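Reopening this ticket.

The earlier resolution said the output was attached, but the attachment link was broken on my side. Pasting everything inline this time so it's all in one place.
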Amino acid sequence: MTTTKPPVIAFVVTCYNEEAGLAHAIADLIAHLDGLKRSKAISPRSYIVLVDDGSTDGTWTVIENAARTNGRRVRGLKLARNVGHQNALLAGLLEQIGKADAAISLDADLQDD
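Inline output:
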């Protein structure tokens, strides 16, 4: 019998001026991440990457706090300036090459399932 290890998944979340609702979104994502880990659907090494697309509000501070309090489950990537959603997403995805088995993109507002 061959056992396969669950995949390491990187949830890549693009953020632009999301300070007001980001802490709630992060808490929701962490809960889902932990549930998937408990069910062994994903590796315990799976994580969330929050990409700050040059926000002008306190988005980066929220990301830094989440990364500090959640260990390796939450990581941040800060872009020097606003490059647009698609370029920010690409930067986040490219950063995961060699680190995760798969990357899943999400928007910070979590409106889409």
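Reporter confirms the inline version is readable. The CA atoms of residues 52 and 60 lie 6 Å apart. The mean pLDDT is 94.
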